[in-house]
Structure formats: C-alpha cells, structure tokens
Amino acid sequence: MIMQDSVQELTGVRSDEPTAEEIRLSGGLLVEDWPHARQVMRLSIQLFEATQPLHGYGKHALRLLERAAFLHNTGMMVEARRHHKHSYRLIKETPLPDFSDKQRHEIACIARYHRRALPSTDHEEYASLSSSARKRVSALSALLRIADALDYDHDGRVLKVAADSAHCTEKHWTLRLWVRPLADLDVELEHAQEKADLFEKIFDRKLHFVTHD
C-alpha cells in the first residue's frame, strides 16, 4: 500500500492520531500534527499532477515526494526553530518501508528544503547526491514548499489544487485553488508566494494563484 492510497481513504478525516499503517510507512517517526501531515501530502500530490508538464517525472518521483511531504515536520518533535534540519537527520537515519538508502536520502533532502534555505551544493547533504538526484530533489522540494504554505494555518482550508491550463505559458504558471466555504486564504497565499521562490527558480516561470468561484 502506498501513501497516496492512504490519503484518498483519509480525505475529510482530521484524526489527531496516526493509523497503524501510517506508523508503519513512517518507519515509526512521529509528527506533531497528523492532519497537517496528511493535508500537505495530499496537496503535494495534486501539485505534482498540476505541474507534470514542467517537471516530467513519474510515479517513482511521486513516491519520494509524498513520503517527504508526510514526514516534513517530523523534526518538530525535536525543536521548532531548526526542525527542517532535524527532519533531514531523522529521516536519513530511519529505515522506511519500500525505500532504499539512496531513496531515503532523497526523501530526507526534500523534507529538509521545505522551508528556509534553497538547495545548494554548499550543503553537504545536497552536494553528495548525483546530478539527476539533485535535480529531482530541487523540483520536488519546490512543490513541497508551496504545499506546506497552503496549509499555513494547519486547518485544511484548501480543498483542491489544479493547473489553470488556459493561463499556463512559457513565462507563467497558474494554479487554481478550491477553498472551504467562508474560509479566508490571504495568509496562505502570502506564504505561498514567498515560498514559490524555488519553484520560480527551477521552472523559470512566475507562479500565480487564483481561487475557484
């Protein structure tokens, strides 16, 4: 069972406790907010699909992204201030079902770059990756940064994300957001624009958001 299946089963569920399957897939790692972890993973999957023409990756890369998205905040169990770095260390050191050591290193790097600094060869963990892995980590981290921002308030107010194909060009990429009724999205959009920095660097397009009426 892959985590994408778990997301579909958990749509609409805001349980504060992990399922036995989630604990197995996380290798026993914990997160401080399970509904947020599920929501960020769900949005990451939708963003992956919405930007597939840009990155061109398939199921292998999606598996890396969804596991990284689910565990991106595991470092919060250590401390908040540098939790992205702690997430990297915890994931790197914890065997995860269905993934090799090299794949787990990529997952750890994707989680590490969900906030703060962008991927850089000045960072040992990133520099040690192969060229193709660095490219993949950068692209997937760009999507995770946005997914995390779109759940800034940890309350699942964004219901769906999809590409607005009529407004996706060689210079711009537009994402359409479906939002929970009466929910305000100002804070989420502000943070999503801030965390679109890596997306715009990697894909060489300005990112825009529109809400679905």
TrEMBL record:
An MF annotation (GO) of this entry: pyrophosphatase activity
Source organism superkingdom: Bacteria
Ranges of residues in domain Ppx/GppA phosphatase C-terminal: 33-178
Gene3D superfamilies: Hypothetical protein af1432
InterPro entries assigned to the protein according to its UniProt record, in alphabetical order: GppA/Ppx_hydrolase, Ppx_GppA_C
Family (UniProt): Belongs to the GppA/Ppx family.
Protein name: Ppx/GppA phosphatase C-terminal domain-containing protein
Species name: Dictyobacter kobayashii
